[in-house]
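Translate sequence into structure tokens.
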Amino acid sequence: MSTPNIMTEAYSQEDWLKDIFSNTESDRSVKVAEQSLKVFDIFCEKQGQTRHEMIGRYQNWLKPEKIDGERPEPDIRSICLSLSKFTQFMNEAHDDIEINVRKTNSRMKGDIPTFKKKSPRTIQLYFGYLKSYLRKCHDIKLDSQDIKDFVTFPKNRKPARQPLTLQQLKHIVDEASPKRRALYYVLISSGMRLGEGLSLTRRSFHFEKNPVKVDIEAEYTKTKVERSTYISSEAVEKLKLFLGDVFDHKSECDCIECSKLIFGWGDNQSVNVLYEDQYFHRLRARIGKKLSQKEANGKFVGEGFFKKYPNSVRFVVNIHSMRAYFISKASMKHGETFSHAMSGHGSYLKEYNRIEDMDLEKMYLELE
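Result follows.
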């Protein structure tokens, strides 16, 4: 009696990326997943193979050919050791590997970007996506204990985060355009994430309340839970400067102007966030040069607006620090539950929801 031919369900890289987006609802997660595969491609090329050839080796180790009618035990160790080489590869700079990127100012000057050492957090993130890709797309399943035994990850060193100073904030808002100035005041005084701030429309604001209440739709929060927060009277004044007549409309207004994004540029929030990050990068450099501050290099972390965290590409002064500024100030005034809940940390939201709106308004006014 013949054995029926059992076909397995096809699952492609595109299917995998679609599932990542469905699970996270984040374009950024998809881009990071794609980047993890690109870095793996670079690693494979360094080993003299293509990704297809490397995965073929893994599959042969996982399910080796029969010898004298018997199949040897799976060689999980070799797969894990190869992947350990991948993590070590990412933990080193490779000046001999040129990276194809979009044309930038540094590229136009003749500088050729090369493979940079990845942070421990990025290495773990890329490895996690690659592990998922191998399992779902190529049926290469790795046990967590095998990974623990055979794959080496660099230790995650966490330098103490440095807060924005009031003087730095003054430089930022003084140098920014009126629209960006209003955005920064909103972020600083509310604890919103940048993506949340860029999702706001006129209808998000309740200008008739004191303090002004802001509703953030669940679609744009990290926790996918709708929440409300408040903005300061200074932020309201900056909003007035460019909202004009729309400022006087009620939050329930259904006119076209009230449904438009105030700070965002298009429907793709990931692109909006990237655009604002790029703008802030140029703004930071402009302020740093204006103050004659020294830029970072291979041996120097930089100073002032050019300062970076040690062994990192992250600048100390960045647009996301505004959220941390709010959380720090709110924690000092009313404790962690209030500050983290107002800024949208899921584990604190249940406690936050027990507080009456009138009490929240009073607490915020005391903070302001």
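Note: Residues 103-109 have pLDDT under 50 and may be disordered.
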